[in-house]
Amino acid sequence: MTRRLAWAPLAVLALASSGAEAQDYRRTLVPGRPFCVVWPGREFLYRLDPAGSARTPGDSEFAAIDAAVASWRAVSNTCSDYVFTRGPDLPNPQVGYDKDGGPNDNVITFRERDCNDAVPPGDPCLEADTCANDYGCWEHGNATIGLTTTTFSFRTGYILDADIELNASGTGRGYEFTTADSPLCDSVRTTACVGMDLQNTVTHELGHVVGLDHVPEVPGSTMEPTAHPGETSKRIIDVGSAAGFCDAYPRGLPPVQCGENPQLGRGFQAVTKGVANGCGAGPGVLLPLASGLTVVAWRRRRQGSGAPRG
C-alpha cells in the first residue's frame, strides 16, 4: 500500500528496543530499522478542538486533557528540558500530515459522529480516504476509544506530526468519556461517576506521542495495552514509562536513539537504499503510525477481563 515518497498506513507496532524489557519500557521502532521514532526538538506544541465533546459536563474535558499533559510535564521537570505547550484552539482540526506543506498542527480532537453515520454512500471522500477530516467523524472501529497517529521520517525516525483522536461518537458506537474522580460507575452510567476516564485515556495516548510503545508484560504501566472502564491508575506516569521518556530526552543533550548511552549523546546514522517490494524505503519517505486504545465492555469488566489498548 506504500508508494515511494508517499504514505503507508501501519498496524499497531509491538517492537522492543534492545534491553527495553529490563527497563520496564519500550520505545517504538522504525519498521525494519535499528532505531526509534523520536522528536528532534524539545517541544510538543498541541492544539485542541474548541468544540470539545458535547457529552461531557461543561468544559471538564479540557481540564482532563490539561491534567494528562501536566502528568507528562511533571516527569519532564525531573529529567528533561522537553516542554508541552498548548497552542491556540483550532476549529475543525485536520488529523494527519500534509507533505505538501500544510500547517500540520499537532491536534487533540473528539470525533462526535461515526463515519458510517456521517458519510453519504458514494461520497468522493471514500475513494480519497479523507472522510474523517472532511466530516470530522470517527473511522477506526467501535472497539477503539482513542487513536494516536504519528508521522515520522523513515530515513531518520524523526517525528513530524502527532495527532490524537477520541472516539466520542454516539448511537452506541463510541464512548461517553467521564471526567469525575469518583465514585466508580455501576450498571447505571452517568457523567457524574468514573466510567471511560478521559484523563486516563489521554495520558496513555501521550505516551505514544513521545515515542513509547506498549509493554504488555508490565502490569500497571501507563503503556500497558489493557484498560477497564473505571480505571484511573494510568493518570499517574509509572516509573518505567517515566524512565523511557527521560532516557529519550535527557536534559541538555540531543534526543537519544535506542541502544545509545544517553550520557554520550551520540546520534544514529541511518542508511537507506532503493525500494523494497514496492514500499517506500528510499530517503525522504514518511510513514504515519496509528496506535489505538481499546477496552472491554462493562459486563466483562466485572469478570476481571482486560482488553488490548493502543
Q: Which short descriptors sum up this protein?
A:
six-stranded mixed β-sheet; globular; two-stranded parallel sheet; 19% helix; 7 helices; 310 residues; disordered N terminus; disordered C terminus; single chain; alpha/beta
Descriptive notes:
This protein is an alpha/beta fold and 310 residues long. The protein is 19% helix and 17% strand. The longest helix has 20 residues, at 60-79. The two termini are 22 Å apart. The model is unreliable at 1-22, 264-285 and 294-309 (pLDDT under 50).
Per-chain topology:
Layout: E1 43-48, H1 60-79, E2 83-86, E3 106-111, E4 113-114, H2 115-118, H3 124-128, H4 131-135, E5 137-138, E6 144-153, E7 159-167, E8 177-178, E9 196-197, H5 198-209, H6 239-248, E10 286-294, H7 298-301
Parallel strand pairs: 1-2, 1-3, 3-7, 4-5, 8-9
Antiparallel strand pairs: 6-7, 6-10
**What is the percentage of strand-forming residues?**
15-25%
Cα radius of gyration in angstroms: 19 Å
Mean pLDDT: 79
* Head-to-tail CA distance between termini: 22 Å
